[in-house]
Structures
1.
Amino acid sequence: MDGFELEQNRDELRAVLVARLQLLENLVEDFGDRMRGLPQGQIRISHHGQRTMYYYRGQRSERWKYMSVQERSKAEAVINRDYMEQVVAWASGEIRKIRRFLAEGYPSSAREPFSKFSLFRQDLIRPLFPSDEEVIREFYSLTYDPLETFSENKRFETGRGESVRSKAEWMIAQKMAEFDVPYQYEAPLRLKGVGTVRPDFRCFNVRRRKVIYWEHLGRMGDPEYASEALRKMQAYSASGFHIADNLIVTEETVDCPLTPATVEYWIRRMLA
């Protein structure tokens, strides 16, 4: 059993519950506003052959009053108010249950049993969850030879002391280091239809235990480069890599360079 899958499922469930809570609260507020414009009272409906007749009373102590055809809209308004009251009662009940469920710490974390043991005992346990250090170490266990093609273009040195090929790649590397995102530069990846490629960055979201690739397309103003980039993106898709899931793609042209804000947006959304 993958403990992280349990934890990820918990996070997803909590997110769904929080979203449902917001929807229910919006519904109660909306129906509350709408009910204020509708008449109160009771409607009685009776049938005589093909004829349907409506009767109305404002209070239980009042006598039923026959409603003419012209008053049908009032009957609809009263019944719709009754319906809205039932919806609000149902939604309010579910709101209370969700709030209580979340307030009591459910769905709970699969990490809790491990935390109940002393540090000495924890050293002897093989927990559902490997530590962040262990999964980062496993991420870096992929070894490969640096890409030597056009190595003379690696003119920009990052804070980690590695050389990259462009200012944009330098910016991405620096930002990932700023956010403590583990990454590897130009690690090999095999894609259907094109063979082995070297994505700019192989990144790791520690919190989600997920490997994500980052391709920066730096010369999209060049038609030949853009055409080749499109072919590569199609190969990524055919190989199961999709933007905003396990793939980040940034682009730039001479007139529209990559910005730090764009880089930070993708790091916060996908990697932090």
2.
Amino acid sequence: MGLALLPNWLIDNDLQAGTLVDVFPNYEVTATDFSTAAWLLYPSRAYVPLKVRAFIEFLQNSMQKS
């Protein structure tokens, strides 16, 4: 279906079973500061519903003030 960055605890069984494939096995990715890290996933950039856009802007503003 596509690439995804997922936590090991969530996908270890799937990696072992072969249902998921690690496409970058020589690299490890970690957030540098979990107190300010946020990831938002939504299906399309062509059309972002107003509610989603408002939520993203709210989070951006909230993170900048911290």
3.
Amino acid sequence: MSRPVYIVDGTRTPFLKARGSPGPFTPVDLAVQCGRPLLLRQPFAAGDIDQVILGCVNVIADEANPARVAALRLGCGAQTTAFTVQINCGSGMQAMDTAYRYIADGGSDLVLAGGAEALSHAPLVLRQDAVEWLAAMQGKDGPLGKLKTAARFRPEFLKPIVGLERGLTDPITDLGMGQTTEVLTHLFDISREQADAYAVESHKRLARAQAEGWLKGELVPAFARDGTVYDHDDGVRPDSAPDKLAKLRPVFEPPYGKATAGNSSQITDGACWTILASEDALGKYGLTPRARILDSQWSALDPAIMGLGPVLASTELLKRGKLELGDIDLWELNEAFAAQVLACLAAWEDEGFCRGVLGLDGAAGSIARERINVDGGAISLGHPVGASGARIALHLVQAMERLGCARGIATECIGGGQGGAMLIERTGAGA
């Protein structure tokens, strides 16, 4: 890349757990609630931004191209181009990566990039046979034809399907995302007890981060139209314990599966923005960079084992940078499922996998638990799929600043059999 690219600031909304009905915010609402305080504290005007890039998976019908709608509502001006990207769980990071490449290539100097998702607003869709019945009704002329078609009506036509359910099922393998995790538990011998223990730790870590105020630097409150203030991630369960999780039934492969509602990521609404800048923009607006994006990587694999995407993408980053696992101070690996994270860690320790799949001379090694997801993750925090990739990158910067770390990797698995990773270096004093 020809020019260095810096992360100068970022914010996110609280991640709000979906609770059976549409939440108070649409994706654009979240993006605007997140972006306004971020832009207000900058020394440049919203109109100075060259591009707005937003990750969003479940775009609602009233907000086509939510990036553009959000950009206009944020006051970026009619002249500012804005577009939405979608690569499932990596969409927020894809937005940042696209901005990174535009700036590195000289096409832009200042970009607002992130993600927004309101999974509680996932649309309800009709069954295919109901759609065909409605189409037949529309196509019939005359009362007799319509009457005959109407007689084919079935009560189940009135029962819609949540679109998210279809979205979380891979159309190639016909496996749900949870089922792909069950495949990994067999490949790497991940036990239910290990998965539950990891989930408990995720909740404990997030609860501690909230109590210590470690998230204040990245969080901005969201205000609903009825005046309700949302100022914290509300999916955390500080009292989570292995014996409680052990009582939950497997969701995806009953009765013997390992993935449950307790050790899987939560269905959540949330948004995250970052501001990326070139050196020219730093000088022009007097910006102080917090971190530099050194490299990024997207990798692909069999959709049935999509959870191993972080291993492939991160390993390619390490190879290109002539780095090893131990050279990375902190990791943010999105917690789609507890067993999926554990499988990734196991894969790096497996000599056969590392030789046969990663092309290494032997096992890559291990990542100490105190260096990965230090403040919890999607199991306790939630996983608004379009925003999570940006959230883990922003929090990685935040955690590196707090802990005095120099280098980190943010990475996630992606439904459909892909993975993304971003290598980030802190630029503050002592980095």
